[in-house]
Structures are given as C-alpha cells and as structure tokens.
Amino acid sequence: MNNSKTWDAYKTQRNYVTKLKKQSINRYFIERCTGGSKSKDFWPTVKPFLTNKGCTSQKETILQENNKIITNQQEISEIFNDFFVNVAKNIGDNNVQVNDKHPSIEAISNKYSNGSTSNKLIFQPINEEFVSKRIGKINVKKATGIDGISPKILHAAKPVVIKPITQLVNLSLSTSIFPDSLKIAQVATVHKKNSVLEKGNYRPVSVLPAISKIFETAIENQLTKYFDDIFDHFLAAFRAGYGCQSTLLKILED
Predict the structure, then answer these.
(1) pLDDT, tens digit, for every residue of 55-107?
(2) Average model confidence (pLDDT) for the chain?
(3) Which of 51, 3, 91, 66 has the alpha carbon at shortest distance from 190?
C-alpha cells in the first residue's frame, strides 16, 4: 500500500516537473524569437536545431586524394593550402586586354593629366575619435585572430589602446606600409556541399586580427573619397549609394 502511494506521489511530482520544463522551454523560445527572423537572438537560438553547424564538437577532416584516403591533418592542411592558392591561378590568364584608347579611359586620363598636386592621393592622419568609433563597431562575437586579441578584449581595453592604435595607424599612413603582422590570417575550411572527401567542396574562411579592421577602414574611407571625385557618376558598380537604378535614372532624366 505504501509502495503504491509512493509511486503515485512520484508520478504526480514527475508530471508536474515535466510540465514546468515544457513551460520554461516554451517561454525561452518566445522571449528570444519574438520579432521574427530579424531579431538578433532568433537565428542563434533556432539554428542549432536546423543544422549541425552550431555544434561545438570538432570533427577531423578526411580527404580523398589520388584515390587515396588522407587522414593526417598536417598533410590535409598542405593539400588545402596548395589547392586554395592555385585554384584561381589561371583564371583570365592571357585573356584580359586593356584598351588604353577606350573613351572612358581617355576621358579620365585627360581630366587628371595636368599633374596638379590637388589630384594626388595623400593620406591624412586620423584622430582618436575615429579609432574609438571603429572599435565600437567591431562585433564582439567575431573570432579571434592569430594575435590572440579578441574583439571583446579590444572593446574592454578601448580607453587604454585608443592612443597607441591611433599612432600606429598614422605611422602606417605616413609611410605607406601596412604591418605584415596584420596580414597573417588563420584559415579554416568550411564544407559547402556534396562529398566531404573532395577538397573542391570546401571554401576557405580567413580570420584576420581585429585591429587590422581599423587600419583597413582608415585606408578605405580615404580611398573611397578620393575616387568618388574621379569616377564618372555613371559608373555605379561596387560603389556605395550607387546601383543600376541610379544609372538608369540619370540616363532617363538628365
């Protein structure tokens, strides 16, 4: 009799705990996914249940090369490195011809052939406010580069590192030398599709030091501003604020 009562009490408590668990899980997903796919918490919450890409377990890569199965990770790294370095080596080889007499090229050449110093690209020094804003825009969730300085640490140390980083960037701009240490990337392979044994089914992902983003932005901003005054307003490819629509509107309305 006592055993029966104990078992009934256990089942009651078990069912109650199961109910609380389901309610907690339901509340968790509602809180994190409210707002739909545009919510910053939506995909990090849902993605692990859709694919295995959210899994933290590290699975060693195995390749098939020349009808031979390769399991040695050092050898696999060399195979990937050789493949990625040479995969685009012959693209456009001897097929690209530049017509120096093209009207567009001649127009640009004639417009800026007077040798005026005002047309020369001269990098200007940046200030600490620029560096502070750039550090603030770096995503803290991004991976850490080979220097071991994570974006999160960079954010936390911002008051201390702003001045030396500003000095380093300005030195790079004045000497026209980009630091070699900031060019070194950690390269990881990501499987795209089809067989995992084929090297061609992987793509490389490079992780550069977080600080290099500040150098790159300082250069990119000034390059963009310089060429905006050179490029014709009909040239819209790969330019911020330009597109097919803007070009068509200029043709139709101007």
Answers:
(1) 444 577 888 888 888 889 999 999 999 999 888 876 766 666 777 788 877 77
(2) 83
(3) 51
Q: What is the C-alpha to C-alpha distance for residues 5 and 78, in angstroms, rounded to an integer?
A: 67
- Residue 214 burial (C-beta neighbours within 10 Å; 0-12, 13-18, 19+): buried
- Asked if residues 123 and 174 have their Cβ atoms less than 8 Å apart, the reply is yes
Count of Cβ atoms closer than 10 Å to residue 246 Cβ = 14
What are the CA-CA distances from residue 214 to residues 165, 171, 187, 220 (Å)?
9, 13, 20, 10
Task: Tell which residue, 192, 201, 197, 205, has the closest CA to residue 61.
Answer: 197
Indicate the domain borders of the chain: 2-50, 113-253
- Which residues on neighbouring strands pair with residue 236, listed in sequence order? none
Comparing C-alpha atoms, which of 242, 214, 218, 217 is closest to residue 228?
Answer: 242
How far is the C-alpha of 59 from the C-alpha of 73, rounded, in Å? 11
- Tell me if the pTM is above 0.90: no
Helices and strands of the chain, counted as H and E runs? 9, 4
